[in-house]
Amino acid sequence: MVDGLLEDGPLIRPVESVSTNTLVGLCIAAIAAICAAAMTWWLYRRRREHTKLTMDKSLAFRPPHRKPTAVKSPGSTSHYLKKSPSPTGPAKSPPGSGGQTPSPTGSQPLQNSNNFSSQLKSLTGGNDNLVQKTSSEVTLTVENEKDKAEFESSEKAERTLINGDTNKNELGQLFFKVRYQADQNALAVTVVKCTGLPARGHQTSDPYIKLQLLPDKEDRVKTRVLRNTRDPVYDEDFTFFGVSQSQLQKISLHFIVLSFDRYSRDAMIGEVICSLSSIFGSENMENQPISLCREICPRSLKIQSQGRGELLVSLCWQPATNRLTVVVLKARNLPKMDVTGLADPYVKIYLLYNSQRIAKKKTHTKKRTLHPVFNESFVFEIPNGIDGLGNISLEFLLLDWDRVTKNEVIGRVELGGQKCEGTALIHWNEVCSSPRRQIADWHKLTE
User: Are 310 and 444 in contact (CB under 8 A)?
Assistant: First the structure.
């Protein structure tokens, strides 16, 4: 009976023993996996700490909003800009402005020699806060007057009002001083104040002023932002070194008054252009500060007085491929957009469907010309499902490029659409009725 139960039960066999080599292999594999995981974690932590350190260094030495820009005076090599804090109390500056603008190469400004510093004390009021490279290179210093003096009397001030009666001006006035030190080839400009600026929302404004030397458009400085005021008082000095007397007669001061906006592009209030040839015509004015007042004028006044010019374009409609070829040939008789009597024009082209922009192109900028020749061709693909050019139109914008302020629209031309009339309508109808033909025509630029 017992033998039968044993025969019918499960077959039980002893477990075979694991060899020593197998155990050693398993241990080595486990140790290798643990080492690989530890090495991976160590490399990850090291790389993370290195990335964080690199980001901290870049934030410590570079402004977050824009690259540092050096300021150059006419006919000279690059030099540096240094700006002192506000004398009227704490105030924020526009994005990208800091206590000091570093040089383009990232090096620190050079210290002045004792001899050169002592020679400049008469010009800078004893302030040695200067930046210098060599005697042949240009140096620029920006400083603030700590001792506020009253604006000079009307007998000593040269007051020129562009539009006559000050009550008629809606953009306010700019008060500033200029002084030229002939023995040091230094031009000092003091931005004193503005009065009667227009409100930019909530019946107030956050104004600041940019200054550049024309015609080069390369020497650029700016004041601090003063919050919630329409009558800002700056009293900030900007001193340009390396300006010879011959260059002085060709230079004009270009002041641009703007209202700072934290969340969008700063709004331009107006501008003032002052030629130095009329101010420093006599030698007795050298080494003496000259107080001036100018009305702030809108830039559009220059266009209104000169006209907007004409634009030559050529169009070709290809219904087989559903393409519209646009050739921007040239423009002529453009208005003078700066004191040099020239402009820096370029053209933007928009393709519209039912008055909605669906595509855009633009030409290259042509520098310093009132009669630019572009000769640039663009091909617009008409979307599928659109039959012909019935609901299609083209909009041409001719703009003036500017390094400092927003590019200004000189004029526009619209071909096609409900607002098309005159020669533009004739040109468009001819293009629609004559496919596969390149048809060109002149068009007057309008506002």
Answer: yes
Residue 339 φ/ψ region, left for φ over 0, alpha for ψ in the -120 to 50 degree band, beta for the rest: alpha
Q: Is the pLDDT of residue 82 over 70?
A: no
pLDDT of residue 408: 84
Q: What is the CA radius of gyration of the chain?
A: 35
The secondary structure of 239-280 as a DSSP string is EEES--HHHHTT-EEEEEEEE--SSSPPEEEEEEEEESTTTS
CA distances from 199 to 129, 170, 191, 204 (A): 36, 10, 20, 4
Residues 6+ apart with CB under 8 A from 211: 189, 191, 220, 221, 222, 238, 253, 254, 255, 256
Rounded CA-CA distance 199/181 in Å is: 38
CB atoms within 10 A of CB 370: 18
pLDDT for 405: 67
Torsion of CA 200, 205, 208, 212, to 10 degrees: 20
pLDDT at 11 over 70: no
Q: How many CB atoms lie within 10 A of CB 386?
A: 14
The percent helix, strand, coil of the chain (3-state, each to 5) is: 20, 30, 45
Q: Say if residue 165 is exposed, middle or buried (CB neighbours under 10 Å; 0-12, 13-18, 19+).
A: exposed
What's the half-sphere exposure (Cβ side, CA atoms, 13 Å) at 151?
Answer: 19
For the entire predicted model, the pTM comes to 0.43
CA 309/CA 219 separation, integer angstroms: 30
Place of tokens 């002023």: 209
Query: CB–CB of 140/81 below 8 Å?
Result: yes
